[in-house]
Specification:
The protein has about 475 residues and is an alpha/beta fold. The protein contains 15 helices and 22 strands. It is about 40% helix and about 20% strand. The strands form 6 sheets. Strands 14-15-16-13-12-18-19 form a 7-stranded mixed β-sheet, with helices on both faces. α5 links the parallel β7 and β8. It catalyses: an aldehyde + NAD(+) + H2O = a carboxylate + NADH + 2 H(+).
Length: about 475
């Protein structure tokens, strides 16, 4: 697998950029540079947008079956690359290979397969009185995606945008850009019309801002931090461009007193530590009824101790490194602040042993956490779990909702009706009851500062349409 990439994908071709700076890509498990990619400029973005704009009318007018056919061929091309995708994610992000294969490579294929069907059957026109209501693609979409799920987060934007008839300019994260190159190899093989999908690598302050401010970008779809989402909103607002944002989270895992505690804790810890905690939906606050609290603390500490740190390519590894040295330091700072604020360490922590090389943080559990403290309020984005006691259902709901975020959450109870009552009261975009599986056809997105709009399934497709009324 050749990791050397020196080009952009513009107007249906691999194009060598003008001589300029490059961005190193590191293996976070070894700290070594494994590749470089071009550092794009505003001029490169302008070329990509020009290609997308020129291709828009033809792609928007294409028959739904033709768009579905392109997406279906992309699905086939990516399926042959699953092993390479998983190994690339393990290399540039540090996700253990087993998880990278199942989640990082497998989930985007499931999402894409769903949009093949949705592309073939777009929303029907409606008659409302003397009006014909039609749906039309929004136009050229600028997609800016994060490093933590480098193919899934792209696919959650790219597939519905293309299914709706939009054209796309993609900026992947500069920390994990190699997976995007594998995707565009597959796009090239699938035979999309020139200009429909374009790739420009680079940094957020340069390429990201050029996308957010470009007058020919009709919509910006961004996933990342709330701070950056706020910045993109401000930039897009100056020209009244549409924005879809999937931002941060501080999700609560509510364990009621009649729950299957062993299962709730085991699944809760696994969720909090998935992808080394670098998951926006991670249940990073475990809220436990006081009657079961001490037992839950013991179970949580024991579960955390079972997560072996190490080489992502070692089958015995359950927890890989964090993506960068800067991310590792931010997580360490959060842990130290949580302990200084009165939290009690029961697993991991700043002095726990980690591999000599690589940006590792030990799986950490801090209990007796004050619901108003920084550790309970700020998104850590690392393998750090805060455990908080609650008195009853009302108290659990109040603590869970005591957050500026509202992306995901969970409720555990032996009484499903009780769990559902609590789930309905949580101010968050998704809630799992008793470990229910993730549904890639359901709408995904957040309340409050967790974002605007929805991704996945038909609700995700709707984000990329305009609505027109034609009076007759």
């Amino acid at each position: 697998m050749d990791l050397a990439r020196t080009d952009f994908y513009l107007d249906g071709h691999w194009v060598t950029p003008s001589p300029g700076e490059t961005i190193p890509v590191h293996n976070p498990a070894t700290e070594e540079v494994v590749a470089t990619v071009p550092a794009g400029t505003a001029t490169d973005v302008d070329r990509a947008v020009g290609a997308a704009r020129a291709a828009f009318d033809g792609w928007a007018a294409a028959a739904p079956a033709d768009r579905a056919g392109c997406l279906d061929r992309l699905h086939a091309a990516l399926t042959t690359r699953v092993e390479d995708i998983a190994r690339t994610v393990a290399l540039e992000l540090g996700t253990p290979l087993k998880v990278a294969t199942r989640v990082q490579a497998g989930l985007p294929l499931t999402v894409l397969h769903g949009y093949v069907e949705l592309a073939a059957h777009p929303p029907a026109e409606q008659s409302v009185g003397n009006s014909l209501v039609v749906r039309e693609p929004v136009g050229v979409v600028g997609a800016i995606t994060p490093w933590n799920y480098p193919l899934h987060q792209v696919m959650a934007k790219l597939a519905p945008a293309l299914a709706a008839g939009c054209t796309v300019v993609l900026k992947p994260s500069e920390l994990t850009p190699l997976t995007a190159y594998l995707l565009f190899d597959a796009i090239d093989e699938a035979g999309f019309p020139p200009g429909v999908v374009n790739l420009v690598t680079g940094t957020g302050p340069v390429v990201g801002e050029a996308i957010a401010t470009h007058p020919d970008i009709d919509m910006v779809s961004f996933t990342g931090s709330t701070a950056t989402g706020r910045r993109i909103s401000h930039l897009a607002a100056d020209r009244i461009a549409r924005v879809a944002l999937e931002l941060g989270g501080k999700s609560a895992n509510v364990i009621l007193d009649d729950a299957d505690l062993a299962t709730a804790v085991k699944v809760g810890v696994a969720n909090a530590f998935l992808n080394s905690g670098q998951t926006c939906t991670a249940w990073t606050r475990m809220l436990v009824h006081r009657a079961r609290y001490d037992e839950a603390v013991d179970l949580t500490a024991k579960a955390a101790g079972g997560y072996r740190l190490g080489d992502p390519f070692d089958p015995a590894t359950r927890l890989g490194p964090l993506v960068s040295a800067a991310q590792r330091q931010r997580v360490r700072d959060h842990v130290e602040k949580g302990l200084a604020d009165g939290g009690r360490l029961v697993a991991g922590g700043p002095d726990a042993p980690v591999p000599d090389r690589g940006w590792f943080v030990a799986p950490t559990v801090i209990v007796d956490v004050d619901p108003d403290s920084a550790l309970a309020q700020e998104e850590v984005f690392g393998p750090v779990l805060a455990v908080i006691p609650v008195d009853d259902d009302d108290h659990a709901v109040a603590v869970a909702n005591n957050s500026r975020y509202g992306l995901a959450g969970a409720v555990w109870s032996g009484d499903e009706r009780r769990a559902l009552r609590v789930a309905r009261r949580l101010r968050t975009g998704a809630v799992d009851i008793n470990g229910a599986p993730f549904n890639p056809l359901a709408p995904f997105g957040g309340y409050k500062q967790s974002g605007l709009g929805r991704e996945l399934g038909r609700h995700g497709l709707e984000e990329f349409y305009e609505t027109k009324a034609i009076q007759r």
